[in-house]
Specification:
The longest helix is centred in the first third of the chain and has 12 residues. The chain is built from 4 helices and 12 strands; from the N terminus they run H-E-H-E-E-H-H-E-E-E-E-E-E-E-E-E. Strands 3, 4, 5, 7, 8, 9 and 10 form a 7-stranded mixed β-sheet that branches. It has a 3-stranded antiparallel β-sheet with strand order 6-11-12, with no helix packed on it. The protein has a two-stranded parallel ribbon with strand order 1-2. By secondary structure, the protein is α+β, with helices and mostly antiparallel strands.
């Protein structure tokens, strides 16, 4: 807030800009606004009730014909071979020192969402669209997707990675995944920024043959105090 005030003064806008500090869901404005700019996302837009906050602001603050920035997020998914990361994640629980058996904790460790970055050659499949969050029209807080992937190469399916591409305005956007897994279904003129993916482990991973099909059901459901993800991955012929 202090930096924002300093910037306003430095640019001669101190008498034209008003700053309100607090939870937007509890703030009241004297009039509606023409533009709402937000970036409450973590690795995924669902984190920390971000969509709920943005939608509340759209309904209560945005004037008719107003603009939401970003306009929409396109979420994508791919199956990933994460051998090194997976080994780093589980090794403390499988090879614990002093003869202490911690292996029963593995199911809890693997049923978590992690954030990390993957290279293009770690993706076993092409990306698939999971869902579109349209902030201009009102984004849903829940999303479910059913995918059929085909393995582009042989490897081990350790889990699914999710990322988003953001459309800020006409012809302006960015890709969280940099140049990975863009395909034809992407936000136009999007700059690749290469930030972390959200990664969800498969508790019982398996080897995958080239051209083998994999079906995946993946969903997110908002709860009053948090959010919940579910995933089922099945290998085909």
């Amino acid at each position: 807030m202090h930096h924002a005030l300093d910037l306003a003064r430095a640019n001669g806008l101190a008498d034209r800009v008003e700053f309100l500090h607090g939870d937007s869901r509890k703030i009241r404005l004297p009039e509606r606004v023409n533009i709402i700019v937000s970036d409450l996302r973590g690795s995924l837009p669902f984190f920390d009730h971000a969509i709920t906050s943005v939608e509340d602001a759209r309904r209560r603050f945005l004037a008719p014909g107003g603009i939401m920035i970003p306009r929409r997020d396109l979420l994508k998914a791919a199956i990933v071979d994460a051998s090194e990361y997976y080994s780093h994640l589980i090794s403390p629980w499988r090879a614990s020192p002093f003869g202490i058996d911690l292996s029963h904790t593995l199911s809890l460790v693997l049923n978590e969402c992690y954030t990390t970055y993957f290279k293009a050659d770690q993706l076993l499949t092409e990306s698939k669209r999971w869902c579109v969050l349209d902030y201009q029209a009102g984004a849903a807080t829940n999303a479910v997707g059913n995918f059929t992937f085909q393995a582009a190469s042989a490897g081990t399916a350790h889990g699914i990675c999710i990322w988003f591409e953001s459309e800020l305005a006409d012809g302006i956007g960015f890709r969280q995944a940099g140049d990975i897994g863009t395909g034809d279904d992407q936000v136009p003129a999007a700059l690749g920024v290469g930030s972390d993916f959200a990664f969800f482990n498969v508790v019982e991973h398996g080897d995958v043959r080239q051209n083998q099909s994999l079906t995946c059901e993946f969903g997110e459901r908002a709860r009053s105090d948090d959010f919940e993800f579910t995933m089922r991955l099945k290998q085909g012929d």
